[in-house]
Queue: 3 jobs
Job 1
Amino acid sequence: MIAGSLDQFGRRIEYLRISVTDRCNFRCAYCMPLEGLPWLPRESILTYEEITEVVRQLAPLGVSLLRITGGEPTIRPQLSTLVAMLRAVPGIEDIALSTNGVKLPEMSAELKAAGLDRVNMSADSLRADRIKEIARRSLSFSPIDAALAAERAGLGPVKINTVVMRGINDDEIEDFARLTLEHPWHVRFIELMPVGEMASLTMEHVVPSDEILARLSRIAPLLPDAGPARGNGPAKYHRFADAPGSVGVITPMSHTYCGDCNRVRLTADGRLRTCLYGEEEVNFRDALRAGEALAPLYASALAAKPKEHALLQMRVGGLRALSEVGG
């Protein structure tokens, strides 16, 4: 076992989620207030060189899997430059991107050429009017076209993340699932996490994963799936017989998966968070800019990584919105 790769509960930490910006071109109700948030000053945000240096120092400590997030990461200029820099770090095995997909048609080929392996795309509706309503932005956008662009560029397996909200988009569960009958895509239904200042969404809007799976089983029997969709996160996958894709559920509310947690998060301003909803974080940015080694700070962070999140108690570690840490 690589020194420094275990937390205090013996979980192997190998997955780093990197937020490159706190800004987004959407204002999804579960993620960011309609008016936005006070944006981070430019000088507070890590440069691509600083992000790469963090990864270079953590790779020998067991980090080998990266995910680039935001806010919306594709709105930060020259994102492919960062991908290429991270690809060159020894020990990095996989680089993924989480995006709302708006820029995938124009950026997929460039990102693939730079070294990106795959894409997770958020899509909370397949209907243009509802996309506008949920995103609270007037953007001409087709999730299907975005997923096809990523697939054509070789950014697979393409995963589509759908936050299910009762009374808002839960009538589209079956429509999303049927995409997997036609395409080699992997649709993951995520239980809503009502947090921070997202007061318009409550526990009443949460659709438990057991209910989602029961509805999917009415389309056709679901089979357990352990195919190529399985990645670095907590999704549990199923498949319809002979379907090229799969369906999955991510269950932060009904079935916590903290016992298998393998990840830490780097915020856009250089704070390492060991739990999405925890209080614990370490200031990497100031240490990095002072020329200090990150290994001692990383060791102390893993030693304090909590056993489980406190989301069910509605404690969210000071987060105002998910956009602050990229989910």
Note: The radius of gyration is 19 Å.
Job 2
Amino acid sequence: MEFHKSKILVLIAFLFFCSGAAQNAEQDSRFITFVTDAASVKLYWKDETGQIYRSIQTLKSKLEDNKQELRFAMNGGMYLKDNSPQGLFIEDGAVRKPLDTLSGQGNFYLKPNGVFYLTKSNRAVVCQSKDFANNDDISYATQSGPMLVIGGEIHPAFKKGSVNLNIRNGVGILPGNKVVFAMSKKEINFYDFAEYFKTLGCKTALYLDGFVSRTYLPEENWTQLDGNFGVIIGVAK
């Protein structure tokens, strides 16, 4: 009897933690935030004819043509001039672009950078690029950088009070296999952005992109449908 009681207490505490994280997300007016199950998330780049979606509006229209409703969308990582993903992109288990392990300039190469991926068993993961290993269980993946939160700690290169301000969007993993996406409504530095994910309870979080970022979340009256992107992250029903 005591054993069952302890299990129930642990479950209650866990649910309270998760609901508290979601409540904190709702209360922080600096961000537009969306929490969902890993199973609901997909990554989009090209349609069935090979055309790049580019904008959230195009993705929304294509889904509606297929009798689906777009609930949430956000640009899903950095991209090159031809709108191809910068770094790794896996779609439906197929590698469309390989992992980029090179060094270079810009946010993407601020090491450690990382990968956000979803498995066929509906698990969501953010890991450092150096730790990523492809296998038959991965359904979707996108690479970006830098990491925001690593092992529960803010990326060591970020400085509190930095004047490097920009609109920023990213993704983090919450307890219970939940995924949280967030975009700042106004310009923010890397430290404060990473701190937000840490406050929510993310042990790992990844920066996706900056001033070009857009989010579509009609349930929060936030409906940015423009853009000219590579990968787009979406949740449809």
Note: Residues 8-25 have pLDDT under 50 and may be disordered.
Job 3
Amino acid sequence: MTSRDVAALRARGRELSNQLQSATSRRNTLAGQLEDADGLNKTGIEQRITLLDQRILGLERDIAYNGQLLASAPASLTSQTEVATMGPMGLNPGQIAGITIVGTIFVAFPIALAFARNLWKRASHHAAPPASPESGQRMERLEQAVDAIAIEVERISEGQRFMTRLLTEGSAPALSVGQKAAEPVRLPDRDAVRASRESA
């Protein structure tokens, strides 16, 4: 038997233990359902429990046989495989992964958060550049232009209100009785005006 065989036997023992736990939990669930079942359901659940009992017995026999094979292996091989499966400081890979996750959450994450907060504070504490006198003069001219535009807009709106009032009130005086409407003024013909200019 080689060290690889011993490692395979250990892995097989772990797998058999997992299967045994799964079968036992399923049997316990079915046993709880059996109390409330009746008729055909009860018979089906009893048959499934019988099959699981047989499965559990077979798994226990396999685990026992696997344990005998491991016990018959030389002590030097079992110690070598134990050392090979252990990581630094006698930890298995699952424990190392757990420690790494905990360390990342409780150590590395707060450090990264503090670093990001420090960068944020530095960026927000930059002093604003001093205002130049040219920008102040530009702002004053801009304010004056806005005031002038506002005055002109007010004048335009006042003129529009006046025209609207004239149109709506009908400011043209009504014709009195017997008064004629104004007749249009007739202009002389263009050709006649042109001919009179040429003759002159």
Note: Residues 88-121 form one domain.
